[in-house]
Amino acid sequence: MTVVYVDSVFCLNGLVDYLLLLSAAQLAGAPMHRLRFFLAAMLGGGYAVAVFLPGCGFLSSLPGKLASGIVMAGVAYGGERHFARLTLLLFAISCGFAGCVLALGLLAGAGNPVVNGVFYTDVNSRVLLISAVAAYLVLTVVFRASARRSGASGLMIPITVSFSGRTLRLTALCDTGNALRDPLTGRPVLVVSAERIAPLWPQVIRPLLTPGALRSPPEVLGSLGTLGAASGFRLLPYSAVGLEGGLLLAARSDWTEIGKKRYEKLLLALSPTSVGNGCDALWGELEKEGTTHAAMVK
What we know:
By secondary structure, the chain is of the alpha+beta class. The chain is 40% helix and 22% strand.
């Protein structure tokens, strides 16, 4: 007969769920809503306890687990543009995380830490905490290393853009092929999807900055000048491998936060077409070991 302590079940599963939610958000470059992650983790801990209550054994079935995971993801990531992708990533990481905690639990001599499909073990809290945190670190390092090796760099990072007092949160892909530079400062230019950044513009100029209109940047700049709103906008020449060069309309932001670094007056190039699958912008620099590396010129 297995004796289950409700406090151990709740705390262990709450901790594991929080680390899972945090890992998925970090790897996807989603905003870090830690309070929402905490609330979702508490919900997960409550689900783990409910599994052991009389008449609630059905919760440990596959449909019960899937429903619990989806509800937990809804609390943590609800409202995000890539909710479905975040949810699938959460499930994928959960599988890897479960394997890590199981292996570490067995190495610690705790036996099988899974009872009724949820984590439970009677080892001391120190071993428990070390096992969970070690699993989190291993998964984070492995997934991040894999992300950097895929595609251009494969690393999705959260960004926040401010223009005329408005702010907007987006997701950028680190693309080392993006060598576009601001001629005035020499700094990299953030290439953003015109469709995704539209909510940032004041209402009076928003109709002028549609993806269709931005296919003719000089005309848009002229229209902005007619409204007396051309300040902060300029034309930016670009070239691409295998394609003829051209012009993009660019706007200078009040500030832009990319990852953990803040750039004042960063130039934003407005792309009339989508900049990539699953992202809102392209950024040409990667930060490794505290150093910012410039994008390579194609």
